[in-house]
Amino acid sequence: MEEIEKKLLKLQEMREEARKGGGEKRIAAQHGKGKYTARERIFRLLDEGSFEEFDMFVTHREKSFGLDEQSFLSDGVVTGHGTIHGRQVMVFSQDFTVFGGSLSEMFAKKICKIMDYAIKVGVPIIGLNDSGGARIQEGVLSLAGYADVFLRNVMASGVVPQISAILGPCAGGAVYSPAITDFSIMAKDISYMFVTGPKVVKSVTNEVVTTEQLGGPDIHASKSGVAHFIAEDEDDSFQLIRKLLTFLPQNNMEETPLVSNDDPIDRLEDDLNYVIPSDPNLPYDMRTIIELVVDQGDFLEVRRRWAPNIICAFARFNGRAVGIIANQPSHLAGVLDNLASRKAAAMIRFCDAFNIPVVTFVDVPGFMPGTRQEYEGIILNGAKLLYAYAEATVPKITIITRKAYGGAYDVMSSKHLRGDLNYAWPMAEIAVMGPAGAVEVLYGRKVKEMEPEEGKKFLKEKEKEYRDQFANPYNAARLGFIDDVIEPRNTRFRIIRGLESLAGKRDSNPPKKHGCIPL
Ligand code: HXC
Q1: Which residue's C-alpha comes closest to atom 15 of ligand 1?
Q2: Which of 18, 170, 196, 276 could be joined to 56 by an S-S link, Cβ 3.0–4.6 Å?
């Protein structure tokens, strides 16, 4: 009996030791920076009492550079599974109190174990990152560990959702694991991501930058697009992850569970009839439209501050999760440029991989012209968007609210790219280009031969003629490219009906290893 008690006590003591991570002093230092410890984070993220830990007793194997004298149970990363809103997730949380959360051989093995498990059972993987990078004492072993994680990130891609929260440093090659995951969340004030830090930048390029300027949340939210979401603080990042998961299925073989909805499906929104300004050159906020049509006006924007001329968001229609892609006329007139094309393509491909229908709101004057756009590859980037829409086999519903000009008409989930239901509002203008540009091309030479006043008058008349003939949805509707012209206030109802009718959609692409999206 005594022997048994001793063994039970030893187990308890070892668990206690593991829970202390790098020790009281380092925990106090972590708290002093306004940060939670690895386990505190997991408990705040998951449903209460749901966490089951793996590999608590793992320690590193390397002995050099003093590692033989210092060893910590769990080896700097806490891993296991638990639930969020009752649905299982796998989670790892890097423990900065142990060797600065640096990644060792065994640390990587722990992460790989839960990733393999997640792929096997089909559940999302959530990584909470807070690390000084490769554990310097372990040399190439830790580099190998990173590559083992990257490989699994790639294998899991499109199979289970992967979400990264950056809650501290994330530097060097370590950034590539979050980069492969589907969503990255950075928390204000405590997180940064870069391939090389300010010191290396200074020595290589002589550029002087702060950590914040180089890879803080603000930069990755607005300039690089690396961060999909910015959280106010750690707790906010956990709430964001919990909310995001409600829109996602557990894996690529499932659909997002329906949630109960008490927002009437036939709610008519009279305001929608008057949202489009009578002057087609005036902007309006596409968010107003989205808010009025989705369940409870609730939607979660992805990469909100990056390429704001296009909106990507998750929302629900009658409890069914969808991805929304919407041109934003209030920013750069909703034009498609390099970043907007990449942003939307990524969202569509994610939705398609995870059986989430795509609802597209179109008001786009075309692709952005100019040397800057061309040099940055608008041809290839625009092609990415086109490719993403064309290959997507999930239900695709398109609403043209106003402009759908030129190549952008084709690209934005048109009938020709397998749009399932294509609707237009009566204010829609669907044509090769805007009236002013069109008449300039058609009659430019002729006008040059006229007196200036006469030429101006002629162009105005032709512009009106072109507008009357083409700046409407009925030419496209006559050809069946638009399934119906709908009253704006009915939009919610028509989308919900459409999604219901498409719920059993089966579509596929020719068998292939994988396509070659223009990268
Ligand atoms: C081992 C590390 C470590 C690392 C930090 N520590 N980084 N131990 N390997 N990479 C340890 C410190 O020795 C210290 O131990 C404790 O963690 C906390 O570190 P501090 O420096 O005191 O903390 P702080 O001032 O907050 O600075 C955090 C930091 C800094 C900015 C992350 O520690 C740092 O610059 N670390 C090195 C980062 C780095 O260059 N990593 C390698 C990148 S290359 P004690 O015992 O004092 O508590 C890389 C390649 C990946 O990662 C390739 C993948 C393909």
Answers
A1: 99
A2: 18
Q: Provide the residue range defining the domain that includes 460.
A: 435-470
Q: Per-residue pLDDT tens for 223-273?
A: 999 999 999 999 999 999 999 999 999 999 999 999 999 999 999 999 999
Best of 102, 143, 200, 201 to mutate for ligand 1, by most ligand atoms within 8 A of CB? 102
Catalytic residues: 172-173, 407-408
CB of 100 sitting under 6 A from ligand 1: yes
Residue whose C-alpha is closest to residue 404's, from 314, 304, 329 = 329
> Domain check: are 354 and 489 in the same one?
yes
Question: 480 and 397, same structural domain?
Answer: yes
Same domain flag for 384 and 453:
no
Q: Shortest CA distance to 210 belongs to which of 185, 218, 33, 133? A: 218
Q: What is the pLDDT of residues 180-199, one digit of tens each?
A: 999 999 999 999 999 999 99
| Dist. CA 144 → ligand 1 center (Å) | 18
Looking only at the bridges linking them, the beta strands covering 192-194 and 484-485 are unpaired
Distance, in Å, from the CA atom of 228 to the CA atom of 186, rounded to the nearest integer, reads 8
pLDDT in tens, 304-318: 999 999 999 999 999
| Residues 146 and 208 placed together within one structural domain of the fold | yes
Q: What is the mean pLDDT of residues 139-158?
A: 97
**Does ligand 1 lie within 6 Å of residue 132's CB atom?**
yes
- Per-residue CA distances from 42 to 95, 176, 493 (Å): 11, 22, 40
80 pocket-lining for ligand 1 (C-beta < 6 Å) = no
> What percent of the chain lies above the pLDDT cut of 70?
100
- The stretch 421-428 carries a mean pLDDT of 98
Return the structure tokens found at 238.
């956990």
pLDDT recorded at residue 173:
84
